[in-house]
Amino acid sequence: MSTEIAGYTRLVDALECLGTREMFGVMGVGNMHMIGEFTKRGGRYVATRHEAGAVNMADGQARTTGGLGVCTVIQGPGLTNAITALTTAVRSSSPVLVITSELPLGRRPAGQAIEQEPLVTATGAAYVRVTDADPGAALIEAAELALRERRPVVVSVPGAVQRRTWAPVPLAAPAVRLERVPAAETDVALLAELFAKAAHPVVVAGRGAQWSGAVEAVAALAERTGALLGTTALLKDRFRGHPADIGVVGGFSHPLARDLLGTADLVVALGASLSVWTIARGGLFPSATLVQCDHDADAIGGQARPDHGIVADVHALVEALLPRLPEPGDAPARWAAEGAFERLAARQPDDGVTDGSDADQLDPRIAAMVLDKALPADRVLTVDGGHYIGFPTEFIAVPDPRQYQFTLTFGAIGQALGVAIGAAVTRPGPAHVCVIGDGGLATSIADLDTVVREAVPLLIVVFNDMAYGAEIHHLRHEGLPDEIARFTGPDLVEVAAGFGCPARRATTAAELAEAVRGWSGDAPLLIDVPIDGLLLAPWYAEVLDPPRQVTKRTG
């Protein structure tokens, strides 16, 4: 008869079964035995100074691997510290396991005891409390839930359960089978009719198209119908190089894309949320018929209400639609006849950009273009939140959309540094670069300790306007003094040096290019780039002055 083992050992058995090689976290009494067992077996435990960083890093792990991210925090304050990062992971559809503990509440909760489940479920994450079940089996089930529903799961294993002994029953990794919603005949017929009538159709792919394995079919759909082909920001550069590619559709669209999209008469969003950002608050394609397809009925019309909502698996819908369409060249679309594809092929990134740099600060568009040219071609780009974020998104290309990490899904700054660390630790090889504002860096500065201690090969580029840039534009728009959103320090090069992180300042394009090209790629480096924070980004101009709704054309 096998000797029973402790609950925390069963948790590590499950982590091994899941193939977990790295785990991020903040240690305490509620998880130290599990962490110790994990490291004894050769697992890499990456300690963070703040729980938000641990969840962000697990989020980055999930994004870059396409699988699970794993982290651990203690109960009570450990979990409450992680809530913003947890919500960001939820809004990013990241399957993250957060292993924690909990304490009895009693009639008058004291110390670290708190009602944890309502706190977690309010973020959209799932909460699993392990009381009488084998902790290892429970963790496997939680992993299956996280992968199937593409959201974080917080697994609470109280200390008493971790100390209790359990039989070492063999564990099996979860086999996640996604149910594919078939396409209804009426929906296929409707789309075929809409494409037949459209002169200026646009197909927009989101991550749902990628998850369903439909991206090649989506490209074929654009080719068959003569449509322009774009993506949401989260699928950035997926069709880069395709003749019909217009890039990111939404507030981050380049000027030519905006011009073309303004005349669209049909926009079909496939596995895309049709968020206010994707439709640029209603001003990007005001006269188009909007169609949204998603396998999840709750995603239809979540933010912008389409004219037609289709609940179906993207791949199933497109595969059913293609045989119903005219052969290439027979479609009525006029984009090709009007020279749209030639205009896209001739477009240069700096079209319409007048360099606004001066002796003390860089135009953020120029800074982003310098990064694009100076970085190795194989790069992972992680972008934080703030007014400036559209510039690196527009001007810095990535070889694969999974190598672009957008972290503003909850509207919270300070998430990118942790996400970038998780990606760099989990996926060595590409050049990992994090573009973050001075405000975002200040809110996540503790993560620099992890960068240095773990020798994470990460390039941290700070777009530093010495302010909360978005708030500056809001204050000026409202006619209010902007001094309350400005800061005079600290010196970020000295701050980084205090953590032991090599750092330098670049105030010109030449200095920035030299700094990037001088980065070894196998050690951390922070570059402080003073930028012109008063240059108003087009996407943020739409935040300040949302476009008025335009009556759609008829006939």
Summarize the helices and strands and which ones pair or pack.
Blueprint: E1 5-6, H1 7-17, E2 22-25, H2 32-40, E3 44-47, H3 51-65, E4 69-72, H4 77-81, H5 83-91, E5 96-100, H6 116-121, E6 126-129, H7 135-149, E7 153-156, H8 159-163, E8 165-166, H9 185-197, E9 201-205, H10 207-211, H11 215-225, E10 228-231, E11 245-248, H12 255-261, E12 266-270, E13 289-294, E14 308-311, H13 314-321, H14 340-346, H15 364-374, E15 379-383, H16 390-395, E16 404-406, H17 416-426, E17 431-437, H18 438-443, H19 447-453, E18 458-464, H20 469-477, H21 492-499, E19 503-505, H22 509-517, E20 525-530, H23 538-544
Parallel strand pairs: 2-3, 2-4, 4-5, 5-7, 6-7, 9-10, 9-12, 10-11, 12-13, 13-14, 15-16, 15-17, 17-18, 18-20, 19-20
Antiparallel strand pairs: 1-8
Helix pairs in contact: 1-2, 1-7, 3-5, 3-17, 9-13, 11-13, 15-22
Short key terms for the protein model shown above:
globular, six-stranded parallel beta sheet, 36% helix, alpha/beta, 16% strand, disordered C terminus, 555 residues
Cα-based radius of gyration, to the nearest Å: 25 Å
- How far apart, in Å, are the first and last alpha carbons? 79 Å
Helix content: 25-40%
Strand order of the largest sheet: 3-2-4-5-7-6
What is the helix tally?
A: 23
Approximately how much beta-strand content do the residues carry?
A: 15-25%
Task: Note the overall shape.
Answer: globular
Given as residue ranges, the uncertain stretches (5+ residues, pLDDT < 50) are 549-555
| Main sheet summary | 6 strands, parallel
Number of strands: 20
Structural class, from helix and strand content? alpha/beta
Mean pLDDT: 92
